[in-house]
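Hi,

I'm pasting everything inline rather than attaching a file, because the server keeps stripping attachments. The sequence lines come first, and each chain or strand is labelled.
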Amino acid sequence: MKISYYPGCTLKTNAKNFEDSTLCSLKALGIEVEEINRWNCCGTVFSLATDDLIHHVAPIRNLIRTKQAGSDAVMTPCAMCYNTLKRANEKVKSDPDSLEKINNFIDYEKISYHGDVKVLHLLEILRDQVKFENLAKKVVKPLNGLKVASYYGCLLVRPKEIGLDDVENPQVMENLFTTLGAKSIDFPHKTECCGSYQTVDNPSIVAERTHKILTSARNRGADVVAMSCPLCAFNLDNRQKQTAEIYSEFKKIPVLYFSQLLAIALGCPEAALRLDLQYVDPNPVLKQKGLL
Amino acid sequence: MRVNISQKKVRDQFVAKIEELSGQSILACYQCGKCSAGCPAVSEMDILPNQVIRFVQLGLKDELLQSKSYWVCASCFTCNARCPKGIKIAEVMEALRQILLRKKKDYVKIPKLTDHEKEDVPPIALISSFRKYTS
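And the predicted assembly:
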């Protein structure tokens, strides 16, 4: 199966640490992916209104680009892109009328879309194709002694038909970090919303969520919190500034992309981690555990 | 709260429009409250998610259009995942937002955002905010 790579907008800007660590990890695993030519923004959110077809055009166009690259599947590390691309794909697969309308609307494209591209998240590739038992053999620097809380947020697991794991108690990231030698910490807020885009107009809501989610992870003993969504990462990392201003007892905790921890374990150079992009500095804890 | 119920309100176009835009059958809800119990945004809401559904059932258009509950709903889909009747509450919230947005009543006014507010956040935040809050 040939797999195309869809980075999405934020992996090329604020979340360059997510992209660089992902690409380095894939290389270390011997997986070749090619970035889709002329990809466009997926729209970040799936339109929920029944009559709003126009907003499904952007994700479907990316699936057409995937076909044009001769690929059967598209992989993205971003939880929001994954959700939007996959939901748009499932929508047109189950609703031939809307697929026909979208194809007619973009009839200037050289090919039309028939619902035949598979949308995959990087975690699915690691779990189902690489498989964790094989991944374990590639670990050169086990994450020994590092306690990692896995935060899924909303869009990796909901809705149920789209999610890549159990809707209430996903385990894929915990299993990944155990494979990498870390200690996985379970905590009750791992699928609770971070406040999402309300970070633009109402950062205090996000600070309240960040406080609740991160304090819960810290109380369970986590050294770091790992995730897969650039918007969650911004809210749970950068918004710790506002959180600390509002909640005086709040203690900051480093927030990383799962791919950064994967890249460390697979022996990627420090430059691929781009730790300079983190707001809360993970260097002290990673150095203390002998991982840098 | 005193509520006047009338056939006129219940059969109003407003209720039909919400059912059409959300694709949900509102009368399926029997008010168990599970959506509100799991909603992480209730502390910011003036009407709880199960009440939003109840208000739609009763056609309480004015009360709904003044509420801010559906603006603080971030479509996290926890309610949808837990509803025992399979009602997609998040879709109902979207229908309410759409009814207002389609009258060009933007919730976030882009020209009013400062350069700092725009530069401070990643593209993924701006795009999703504008998708959900502007027409």
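Chain B has two domains: 7-103, 107-135.

If the labels don't parse on your end, tell me and I'll reformat.
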